[in-house]
Write a structure and sequence with these properties.
elongated, alpha+beta, 28% helix
Amino acid sequence: MPEFDSDSIIDDILRKGEKVADEVEVVYGTGKSINASLKGREIGEAGGSELWAFCIRIIDGGRIGSSMTNDPGRWEECLDAAKAGSRFAGVQDWGGLPGPYTPNGTPDKVFDENLDFNSARLTGYIE
């Protein structure tokens, strides 16, 4: 996975987004996966991946546009695409996005931290 500062990119998106739209929202997510497939009793293929993505939604004059990227170097193009998409949207009676939210405490986890994602363990599961 490329090295980048997601907080800095989000700040840049929000700062530039405020100049081109009434409101802007950024959703950022990351994930890891490991997979294997069997060919008979042998592992046919095995692999792993890490991923992340930014989704940008803008609201301008009641028109909503959104775009998504998984390339941190192209966030400006993603913002431009969200703005362009809003031009095709119908005007909505828009009440506004909610304000910033910081969760109290640690968010619930959706995975087991005890699982070590490595090929040796995966091989053990499928043998």
